[in-house]
Amino acid sequence: MRRGLIALALSVASLPARAQNLDTVTIRTARVADGVYMLTGAGGNIGLSVGQDAAFLVDDQYAPLTPKIVAAVAAISPKPIRFVLNTHWHFDHTGGNENIGREGALIVAHDNVRRRMSTGQLIELLRRQEPPSPPGALPVVTFTDAVTFHINGDDVAAIHVARAHTDGDAIVHFRKANVVHMGDVFVRGYPFVDLSSGGSIDGVISAVGRVLALTNDSTRFIPGHGTLSNRAGLEAYRTMLVTIRDRVQRLLGAGTSLKDAIAARPTAEFDATWSNAFITPDRFVEAVYTSLSRR
Q: β-strand 28-33 against 146-151: which pairing, if any?
């Protein structure tokens, strides 16, 4: 039952906002650690830091949900939202930028997030053409490798991980709280490797390994979609990724066609745990095969 709910959440989160009835969405709040919360609704999971300084958001879902998100934050802290950090450019993580920025929050992201939001983008998997974002939605502060916020008694580090889910991913490490928001580098299902936005399977695996090296057995992990996780969950995710990547690489190296690679079912032992309505086993194998063929 739990896996079915996760699969449903992933499939719904992948839909364009206009295909969902956002009026019925409830923003739910879960405490992760002292001063750190996870907010769920529609779209990517939101990270929230609160304390004596301000409210600090990681991602902001869809524009129509902004009033509900702001209300959920206000129920936890009277402090204003001072920063929004985008983990990547996709519309289900940046849709609230313009609204929250208009209220005085500073939008921060990797250089490539602003670059992609500034121009039209094609998300090949969704066959969706995204128009340029309005100027008010664009990140005001961008970084190349990393940036650290000293806020609410914590050191919050945003670290770029190259060519993973996209080419502009940031993982967000709340160092004192011992929490990491992974963006869509880690989801509770087969991941969407957005090749059209510069993503790669090798980059996803490298990013997960980098995060594991930065953290410990007590760290809590906020995925881009799905339920809160721990180190064992992230390690299992990496094992799945590496095993499937290596199997597909052997098929590719043997000259196997994409059709035959899919038919070989290199994901079979993982499907019961990781398959979801958005990224099916066949779709994931196709992404891995295509990514490896572009090395």
A: unpaired
Q: 52 is written with which tokens?
A: 């004596």
Ramachandran angles phi, psi of 82, nearest 5°? -100, -30
Number of helices followed by number of strands (H, E) in the chain = 10, 14
Q: How far, CA to CA in Å, does 38 sit from each of 41, 48, 154, 229?
A: 10, 6, 17, 11
The C-alpha atoms of residue 4 and residue 275 are separated, in whole angstroms, by 10
- The length of the chain in residues reads 295
Question: Residues 171, 204: contact at Cβ < 8 Å?
Answer: no
- Taking only the tens place, the pLDDT of each residue in 54-110 is 999 999 999 999 999 999 999 999 999 999 999 999 999 999 999 999 999 999 999
* pLDDT tens digits along 120-173: 999 998 889 999 999 999 999 999 999 999 999 999 999 999 999 999 999 999
Sequence ranges of the domains in the chain: 2-240
Write down the CATH superfamily of domain 2-240: Ribonuclease Z/Hydroxyacylglutathione hydrolase-like (3.60.15.10)
Q: d(Cα 111, Cα 144) in Å, to the nearest integer?
A: 6
Alpha helices by DSSP H, listed for the chain, are: 2-13, 66-74, 91-94, 97-102, 111-117, 201-214, 231-253, 258-263, 271-274, 281-293
Angle (CA) 254-256-260 rounded to 5° is 150
